[in-house]
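Study this one:
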Amino acid sequence: MSSEPPLIRAEGLTKHYSSDDGLLDRLFGDTQLVKAVDGVDLEIEDGETLGLVGESGCGKSSLGRTLVQLEEATAGSVYYHDSDSGERVDLTELSSSEMQEYRKEVQFIFQNPDASLNPRLTVEDIIGEAFDIHGIEEGNRNERVRELLETVGLQRSHAGRYPHEFSGGQRQRIGIARALAVDPEFIVCDEPVSALDVSVQAQILNLLEELQEEFGLSYLFIAHDLSVVEHISDRVAVMYLGNIVETGVPEDIFEEPHHPYTEALLSAIPEPDPLWVRDRVQLEGTVPSPIDPPSGCRFHTRCPQIIPPDGMDIEQAVYRDIVGLRQRIREREINVDRVREEFAEGTSTDAVADALVGQEFDHPPSGVHRDRVEEALSLVAENNWERGRELLADHYESVCERREPVLQEDANPKACHLYEQPPTESMDTGSRQQGSADD
């Protein structure tokens, strides 16, 4: 990394959206906050491409839009290092008129050029509009537009055409030319190739790399295709439910990922070699709602390596099943009625609980763990959901639930409790956990 200050630095950047868009929400005051970006710290160096990856809905686009102030930040700061003055400017503190000046330095390439290009304007007016908005005197405006078209691989004669006369890849090139018109230093590329054919994707990626070298650009490159990110990025940041969970250079991230979520993402990449053998990491459940994200580590509800309580002797697969059971009890998703239908009227709740264990567990517990689970499910069978949940929480709550992990400051930063202290020898092959004594 350079000894110079980063071009862009986000500190505690937060973007929450109100969910009171509906009439009933406004009438009854049932307002909830969607925590799209929730306290993100990141840096982007001058001339660097930072790739940002994660599942759909994790907050990638909201983060990109908030960095360049297309969305107003709820909290936190975005510092831009002005190379001309040498000053560090907090973009979140600027008024609309003050931000107008810095929009020449930070630009945005949208995912869908069909929606971002005005169909009623010619290409010349779409690109030239940037000169008009920012009061840039370019001499022969029309000539400058044609130069930009050539720069992005289009023909000068295309200036008089309308967006619908171009292919998807050509329209994206127009969007890139529009971003370049104001001579920016930093560009957020929001999934700029996701809607394009593979062959066209490669052309756009190569173009972005050529432009970066020619104009000294810095990129935040947002994508869900990990192979694309690996190709273009100098560093990669992995995002989950509004948080950055791991960063590193592509070689480290792709060859030896540390965070369990990163491992799961990489294991899902299709491999064309039929002889290639890879262990697929299957994530249970769905991504939690950003309206009510889980406590502690937000990934703990799906994590295949969640840490059991200190000193607990339990296989990782069994513990993972118990964590899932607790979640289903919390959401009241246990189908007790279906199990009861299999028994005669008056059957004991203990018998129902035993049957529920078979229904709810892929890896049934044994010993003391079985006794506790059956006791909790007996309470559920008696419609005492909250007490059943509390009983399991008393014995099986993980540090991953209690405390949010901090992004570790090392060569490969990751936010995971597994790396806050040296893990002990695993009791279950392939897993890492604390403790080894029986609970």
